[in-house]
Amino acid sequence: MRTTPCPPLWPRWAWRAWAVQYPGRQERFREACVERVDLLVDAVTAEFRPVLGDGLPFGLFGHSMGAVLAFETARRLAGDGRKPAVLVVSGRQAPSLPWPPPGVPSLWDADAALLVEELRLLAGQDAEALDHPALLRLALPALRADYRMLQDYTYVPGAGLDCPVIALAGDRDPRVAVDAVAPWGRETRAGFEMQVLPGGHFFVDEHLPHIVETIGSRL
What range does the domain containing 23 cover? Predict the structure, then answer.
Protein backbone atom coordinates (compact mmCIF):
# COMPACT_ATOMS: atom_id res chain seq x y z
CA MET A 1 0.00 0.00 0.00
CA ARG A 2 1.14 3.53 -0.63
CA THR A 3 0.17 6.71 1.18
CA THR A 4 0.96 9.97 -0.56
CA PRO A 5 1.14 13.40 1.11
CA CYS A 6 -1.20 15.90 -0.55
CA PRO A 7 -0.69 19.66 -0.87
CA PRO A 8 -2.29 21.79 1.87
CA LEU A 9 -6.06 21.76 1.32
CA TRP A 10 -7.16 24.56 3.63
CA PRO A 11 -5.10 27.41 5.08
CA ARG A 12 -7.03 27.74 8.35
CA TRP A 13 -5.54 24.62 9.88
CA ALA A 14 -2.02 23.27 10.17
CA TRP A 15 -2.81 19.70 9.16
CA ARG A 16 -1.66 17.31 6.49
CA ALA A 17 -3.72 15.17 4.13
CA TRP A 18 -2.56 11.72 3.06
CA ALA A 19 -4.15 9.92 0.12
CA VAL A 20 -4.25 6.12 -0.12
CA GLN A 21 -3.43 4.78 -3.57
CA TYR A 22 -4.63 1.21 -4.13
CA PRO A 23 -2.57 -1.27 -6.16
CA GLY A 24 -3.76 -1.51 -9.76
CA ARG A 25 -4.71 2.17 -10.03
CA GLN A 26 -3.10 5.14 -11.77
CA GLU A 27 0.69 5.01 -11.40
CA ARG A 28 0.32 1.59 -9.71
CA PHE A 29 -1.67 0.09 -12.58
CA ARG A 30 0.97 -2.59 -13.22
CA GLU A 31 0.51 -4.04 -9.73
CA ALA A 32 -2.01 -6.77 -8.99
CA CYS A 33 -5.30 -5.54 -7.54
CA VAL A 34 -6.27 -6.53 -4.01
CA GLU A 35 -9.62 -8.31 -3.66
CA ARG A 36 -10.01 -8.53 0.14
CA VAL A 37 -10.82 -5.69 2.52
CA ASP A 38 -8.78 -7.18 5.36
CA LEU A 39 -5.64 -7.24 3.21
CA LEU A 40 -6.09 -3.58 2.30
CA VAL A 41 -6.63 -2.72 5.96
CA ASP A 42 -3.40 -4.57 6.83
CA ALA A 43 -1.50 -2.51 4.26
CA VAL A 44 -3.06 0.83 5.14
CA THR A 45 -2.54 0.47 8.88
CA ALA A 46 1.08 -0.59 8.33
CA GLU A 47 1.65 2.62 6.34
CA PHE A 48 -0.18 4.87 8.78
CA ARG A 49 1.37 3.66 12.05
CA PRO A 50 4.67 5.54 11.52
CA VAL A 51 2.77 8.66 10.41
CA LEU A 52 0.64 8.56 13.56
CA GLY A 53 3.58 8.09 15.88
CA ASP A 54 3.66 11.76 16.84
CA GLY A 55 0.39 11.39 18.75
CA LEU A 56 -1.38 14.22 16.95
CA PRO A 57 -5.12 13.88 16.29
CA PHE A 58 -6.11 12.39 12.97
CA GLY A 59 -9.27 11.64 11.04
CA LEU A 60 -10.18 9.18 8.32
CA PHE A 61 -12.29 9.79 5.22
CA GLY A 62 -13.54 7.28 2.68
CA HIS A 63 -15.97 7.48 -0.21
CA SER A 64 -17.99 4.57 -1.62
CA MET A 65 -15.93 1.39 -1.16
CA GLY A 66 -13.34 3.57 0.56
CA ALA A 67 -15.85 4.18 3.35
CA VAL A 68 -15.69 0.48 4.24
CA LEU A 69 -11.90 0.60 4.18
CA ALA A 70 -11.83 3.74 6.35
CA PHE A 71 -14.28 2.17 8.82
CA GLU A 72 -12.32 -1.06 9.21
CA THR A 73 -9.05 0.89 9.42
CA ALA A 74 -10.54 3.04 12.18
CA ARG A 75 -11.54 -0.07 14.09
CA ARG A 76 -8.09 -1.62 13.64
CA LEU A 77 -6.25 1.53 14.73
CA ALA A 78 -8.59 2.02 17.69
CA GLY A 79 -7.78 -1.52 18.77
CA ASP A 80 -4.11 -0.51 18.75
CA GLY A 81 -4.83 2.46 20.99
CA ARG A 82 -4.80 5.02 18.15
CA LYS A 83 -8.36 6.36 18.24
CA PRO A 84 -9.30 8.66 15.33
CA ALA A 85 -10.65 12.09 16.15
CA VAL A 86 -13.36 11.59 13.52
CA LEU A 87 -14.43 9.09 10.87
CA VAL A 88 -16.14 10.56 7.80
CA VAL A 89 -17.87 8.07 5.49
CA SER A 90 -19.40 9.09 2.19
CA GLY A 91 -21.57 7.58 -0.53
CA ARG A 92 -21.86 4.18 1.09
CA GLN A 93 -24.62 2.33 2.88
CA ALA A 94 -23.96 1.30 6.48
CA PRO A 95 -21.70 -1.77 6.75
CA SER A 96 -24.27 -3.70 8.77
CA LEU A 97 -26.68 -3.76 5.82
CA PRO A 98 -26.51 -6.62 3.29
CA TRP A 99 -24.57 -6.14 0.07
CA PRO A 100 -25.49 -5.91 -2.73
CA PRO A 101 -28.62 -3.96 -1.84
CA PRO A 102 -31.96 -5.01 -3.32
CA GLY A 103 -32.11 -4.56 -7.09
CA VAL A 104 -28.34 -4.34 -7.56
CA PRO A 105 -26.74 -7.26 -9.42
CA SER A 106 -23.52 -8.96 -8.44
CA LEU A 107 -21.02 -7.15 -10.63
CA TRP A 108 -17.55 -8.50 -9.95
CA ASP A 109 -18.08 -11.36 -12.41
CA ALA A 110 -20.50 -9.54 -14.75
CA ASP A 111 -19.71 -9.08 -18.41
CA ALA A 112 -18.08 -5.82 -19.46
CA ALA A 113 -21.27 -4.38 -20.94
CA LEU A 114 -23.19 -4.71 -17.67
CA LEU A 115 -20.30 -3.28 -15.69
CA VAL A 116 -20.06 -0.27 -18.01
CA GLU A 117 -23.83 0.24 -17.74
CA GLU A 118 -23.52 0.35 -13.95
CA LEU A 119 -20.66 2.83 -14.16
CA ARG A 120 -22.69 5.08 -16.45
CA LEU A 121 -25.50 5.03 -13.92
CA LEU A 122 -23.14 6.08 -11.13
CA ALA A 123 -21.19 8.66 -13.12
CA GLY A 124 -24.20 10.38 -14.70
CA GLN A 125 -23.10 13.27 -16.88
CA ASP A 126 -19.42 12.65 -16.08
CA ALA A 127 -19.27 9.34 -17.95
CA GLU A 128 -17.29 10.50 -21.00
CA ALA A 129 -14.26 8.38 -20.07
CA LEU A 130 -16.36 5.25 -20.54
CA ASP A 131 -16.44 5.96 -24.29
CA HIS A 132 -12.68 5.28 -24.59
CA PRO A 133 -11.94 1.54 -25.04
CA ALA A 134 -8.28 1.90 -24.04
CA LEU A 135 -9.21 3.54 -20.72
CA LEU A 136 -11.82 0.89 -20.07
CA ARG A 137 -9.32 -1.90 -20.57
CA LEU A 138 -7.14 -0.33 -17.89
CA ALA A 139 -9.98 0.45 -15.49
CA LEU A 140 -12.18 -2.65 -15.58
CA PRO A 141 -9.82 -5.05 -13.70
CA ALA A 142 -9.57 -2.60 -10.79
CA LEU A 143 -13.33 -2.05 -10.77
CA ARG A 144 -13.96 -5.79 -10.73
CA ALA A 145 -11.59 -6.08 -7.78
CA ASP A 146 -13.56 -3.38 -5.95
CA TYR A 147 -16.84 -5.17 -6.51
CA ARG A 148 -15.27 -8.47 -5.48
CA MET A 149 -14.12 -6.87 -2.22
CA LEU A 150 -17.60 -5.54 -1.52
CA GLN A 151 -19.18 -8.89 -2.42
CA ASP A 152 -16.88 -10.84 -0.09
CA TYR A 153 -16.78 -8.33 2.76
CA THR A 154 -18.26 -9.69 5.97
CA TYR A 155 -19.37 -7.19 8.57
CA VAL A 156 -18.50 -8.25 12.11
CA PRO A 157 -20.46 -6.41 14.83
CA GLY A 158 -18.30 -4.70 17.42
CA ALA A 159 -18.61 -2.59 20.53
CA GLY A 160 -18.71 0.61 18.49
CA LEU A 161 -16.12 3.28 17.82
CA ASP A 162 -15.20 5.86 20.46
CA CYS A 163 -14.94 8.62 17.87
CA PRO A 164 -17.65 10.67 16.18
CA VAL A 165 -18.89 9.39 12.83
CA ILE A 166 -20.10 11.75 10.11
CA ALA A 167 -21.97 10.14 7.21
CA LEU A 168 -22.42 12.00 3.92
CA ALA A 169 -25.01 11.07 1.32
CA GLY A 170 -26.02 12.37 -2.10
CA ASP A 171 -29.71 13.15 -2.42
CA ARG A 172 -29.77 11.71 -5.98
CA ASP A 173 -27.41 8.78 -5.52
CA PRO A 174 -28.90 6.00 -7.69
CA ARG A 175 -27.41 3.16 -5.61
CA VAL A 176 -27.07 4.44 -2.04
CA ALA A 177 -30.40 5.38 -0.54
CA VAL A 178 -30.37 8.05 2.16
CA ASP A 179 -32.16 5.77 4.60
CA ALA A 180 -29.40 3.17 4.09
CA VAL A 181 -26.77 5.69 5.21
CA ALA A 182 -28.44 6.56 8.52
CA PRO A 183 -27.57 3.19 10.20
CA TRP A 184 -23.91 4.25 10.26
CA GLY A 185 -24.95 5.81 13.55
CA ARG A 186 -24.96 2.36 15.14
CA GLU A 187 -21.19 2.11 14.71
CA THR A 188 -20.21 4.75 17.28
CA ARG A 189 -20.70 5.57 20.94
CA ALA A 190 -19.32 9.07 20.52
CA GLY A 191 -21.86 10.96 18.45
CA PHE A 192 -23.24 10.69 14.94
CA GLU A 193 -24.02 13.30 12.31
CA MET A 194 -25.53 12.77 8.89
CA GLN A 195 -25.41 15.28 6.04
CA VAL A 196 -27.43 14.92 2.83
CA LEU A 197 -25.85 16.95 0.04
CA PRO A 198 -27.11 17.71 -3.48
CA GLY A 199 -25.77 15.33 -6.10
CA GLY A 200 -25.46 11.78 -7.33
CA HIS A 201 -22.99 9.08 -6.30
CA PHE A 202 -19.97 11.31 -6.88
CA PHE A 203 -21.41 14.31 -5.07
CA VAL A 204 -18.08 14.73 -3.29
CA ASP A 205 -16.59 16.30 -6.43
CA GLU A 206 -19.06 19.18 -6.14
CA HIS A 207 -18.65 19.66 -2.39
CA LEU A 208 -14.93 19.23 -1.74
CA PRO A 209 -14.48 22.56 0.13
CA HIS A 210 -17.38 21.68 2.43
CA ILE A 211 -15.96 18.22 3.11
CA VAL A 212 -12.52 19.64 3.86
CA GLU A 213 -14.15 22.15 6.22
CA THR A 214 -16.08 19.34 7.93
CA ILE A 215 -12.97 17.23 8.53
CA GLY A 216 -10.67 20.09 9.44
CA SER A 217 -13.05 21.57 11.98
CA ARG A 218 -13.11 18.23 13.84
CA LEU A 219 -9.32 18.14 14.03
Answer: 2-99+157-218
